[in-house]
Design a protein that fits this description.
7-stranded mixed sheet; 273 residues; 9 helices; 9 strands
Amino acid sequence: MDKMYSAMRAARYSIVPPASNNDSNDSGENKEQNDARDEERRQTEQIVDTGSVITGDGRHMIHCLTIIGQIEGHNVLPSQNKTTKYEHVIPQLVAIEEEPRIDGLLIILNTVGGDVEAGLALAELVAGMKKPTVSLVLGGGHSIGVPLAVAAKHSFIASSATMTIHPVRMNGLMLGVPQTLEYFQRMQERITQFVTDNSHITPQRFYDLAMNTEELVMDVGTVLDGPDAVREGLIDSLGSLSDAIDCLYKMIDKDKKAAKKPAKSTKKTGKKA
């Protein structure tokens, strides 16, 4: 008798009812929730590690890259400084250009400037990209941040943001010889050439703004707010985040439509003898 009750008890607890449709739906919902949490965790880690995020509206996938604080070059800045390390940004720009799933790049700037050659290197990479690029200056885009702002195919600036234009300077020990001044002049010409090639401001006007001695108390240069930067032809448009994203989506749509058009025939037609 005891053996029979034990067998019945074991059989009762070993019976597994068939899965219902509700159970299947619950497991599917749990899987979707887990996938969403994993994606959110991955994006959070990407923001913390690289200051960037990949997002989209379902039709387009864009990469948002932030350039903040001071642009760090060949020298490591103190740990208390907010920095953008160019050796981290360069591989990201290459990956964005080569990744077929990413349709465009949004660059958000709030920088005080930094290393001239590192900033120019990043600006040249952005200007040389084939994919649609849009920049947005928030807070400030000062010094070498100016070439980075104009490097995108279309640039925006918030009305409350400012941009400081000033000549090249150097920290630390330097030789007081004519060659040093000539080196500074050549470096300033490189910056001026890049900015004027990628914006609507003239070289002479940019030079005049950089050499202005009547605005800054302890420096040479000019501070432009958002409307002034657009008025001078330095920045393309006045706007904020939604304006920049809308512009980027329109550029992506335009590129996709152009890519769908059939290529024109290049077949040569020979003359009859």
